[in-house]
Amino acid sequence: MSHHTAEHRSTEMNQCITDCFNCATICIETINHCLSMGGEHAKPEHIALMQTCADICAVSANAMLRGTPAHAATCRACAEICRMCADDCERIGGSDESMRRCIEACRRCAENCESMASK
């Protein structure tokens, strides 16, 4: 069975792909927000973590789209990095609306990727 089309992938995997791309998009948007906020939000370590999160989310989604078994490894890494990113965003400014949006996207992606890592 080919996993290259949405019809051939599980609903769970299709949702994970969507959540990964959504998380990558939101992380990039939030980086712009953080840079405009300055201070703790704009520290290089925080920005680098958010960019790494966006990158691994895109890599994981693409691995699932390709139907490669390597998606288990990328999803495992993605789940871990998404949790790190969510925790860091919460630490820096969890009450800010843009940060909350990023935290929620990262946590949702982490949860779904954790599940995909074992499939």
SSE blueprint and pairings:
Blueprint: H1 11-37, H2 44-66, H3 71-93, H4 97-116
Helix pairs in contact: 1-2, 1-4, 2-3, 3-4
Question: How would you sum up this structure in a few lines?
Answer:
The chain has 4 helices and no strands. The chain is an all-alpha fold and 119 residues long.
Could you describe the 3D structure shown?
It is a single chain. By secondary structure, the protein is mostly helical. The protein contains four helices and no strands. The longest helix is centred in the first third of the chain and has 27 residues, at 11-37.
Share in helix: over 70%
* DSSP helical segment count: 4
- The CATH architecture can be given as Up-down Bundle
Q: Tell me the radius of gyration.
A: 14 Å
> Structural class of the secondary structure composition?
mainly alpha
Oligomer class? single chain
Supply the key terms.
119 residues, mainly alpha, Substrate Binding Domain Of Dnak, Chain:A, Domain 2
